[in-house]
């Protein structure tokens, strides 16, 4: 194959399928994860992300297809023969072992010399800014600290690829957002390829170099956060990655002379007086505001337009807190967006 040339992918899946009885969990999947990237697999529950992760780790056999790690076929290799390690959502720390013993575990079972273990454990804890916790037990640490211990324990084995299965899923929102930033920093520092499973769109957009969007055992699109958000290739991707306006082909034809469906993000849509003439590079629709939704940083306006079109427009609440919204329910308005912000769904 041509793409196995100079630098092989860190992980490559070729035509990988997985069946559980009658369920096709993963269907004919081709995927290439580049070396050193933070790669997320994003999708709703049951879309096959975890199954793909488990097949890369070797916990689950493929039904057909092959898996390559740095160009080497590992499809039939046992998990411990693959240069990968996994961090699970529940961290799977041993409760009766100290933090240092937990972090050392992988080296201990590999019979690494004691002095080297001590040095590497100290380095790993230092790297996670938890140098002082070695003698404690897991229950004496906070959720965020336990998360970092789980990372240290996985990274101490120097895997080429780290697999993370919803590792922030058990944390509350505030801690989760803090850990997202830390996780990204840690990945940049260690330079290891991270493959991250999540069903949280915002999390995937925040963390990833690239995202694969899963739906029903298939990947609908792979791209940078900006690409999948601004230019969704399918209606599913547009809808799953945040709120979107999806304009059906017949309406698209009338509005922009394009007979394919298109999407436009609410934050690209503004509301203008009904009698305002749009500029040449803009598309606009007349309508009536049917609903206002306050979301904190922004307000969403639901506008029922001509031709049965419903458009959501979002306006940042960056005005004085006691200013009321300039538009109310029932107002006749014109929704307007720059035509270049409409992404045609191929
Ligand atoms: P979640 O976020 O809920 O974990 P997911 O996207 O990771 O979802 P998978 O767990 O990979 O999805 O599941 C994909 C499909 O395979 C689902 O229909 C699931 O029910 C099925 N499945 C997964 N593991 C098994 C199993 N061991 N036995 C039978 N069916 C399974």
TrEMBL record:
A GO MF annotation of the entry reads: ATP hydrolysis activity
Xref: PANTHER family: SPERMIDINE/PUTRESCINE IMPORT ATP-BINDING PROTEIN POTA, SPERMIDINE_PUTRESCINE IMPORT ATP-BINDING PROTEIN POTA
Every copy of the ABC transporter domain together lies at 11-241
Domain of life (superkingdom): Bacteria
Q: Which Pfam families match?
A: ABC_tran, TOBE_2
What keywords sit in the KW lines? ATP-binding, Nucleotide-binding, Transport
PROSITE patterns, per database record: ABC_TRANSPORTER_1, ABC_TRANSPORTER_2
SUPFAM superfamilies reported for this sequence: MOP-like (SSF50331), P-loop containing nucleoside triphosphate hydrolases (SSF52540)
Source organism of this protein record: Microcella alkalica
Any single Gene Ontology cellular-component annotation: ATP-binding cassette (ABC) transporter complex
Record protein name field:
Putative spermidine/putrescine transport system ATP-binding protein
The record's section on InterPro entries has: AAA+_ATPase, ABC_SmlMolc_Importer, ABC_transporter-like_ATP-bd, ABC_transporter-like_CS, Mo/tungstate-bd_C_term_dom, P-loop_NTPase, Transp-assoc_OB_typ2
